[in-house]
Amino acid sequence: QTTSRRLADRKSAKFQKNITKRGSVPETTVKKGNDYPVGPIVLGFFIFVVIGSCILMLHLFFVHKSTIF
């Protein structure tokens, strides 16, 4: 059997097994994680760069009294 056919058979068997368990079947069979898509170090670095660039632009704007753009 091909891989896709085996996967289809496995999902079908799981579905058929769950039919007899009316009401006691979990809402989803896929585990939901609370993981963030990026790690805390990457997120911290991104926030550091964004806030740092804003502070730098404000500093340059008020020190030189001219527009940066």
Automatic annotation (TrEMBL):
Its main location: endoplasmic reticulum. It is found in: Endoplasmic reticulum membrane. One of its GO terms (cellular component) is endoplasmic reticulum membrane. It holds the Pfam family RAMP4. PANTHER family: GEO09675P1 (PTHR15601:SF0), STRESS ASSOCIATED ENDOPLASMIC RETICULUM PROTEIN SERP1/RAMP4 (PTHR15601). Belongs to the RAMP4 family. This is Stress-associated endoplasmic reticulum protein. It comes from Aegilops tauschii subsp. strangulata. The lineage of its organism: Eukaryota, Viridiplantae, Streptophyta, Embryophyta, Tracheophyta.
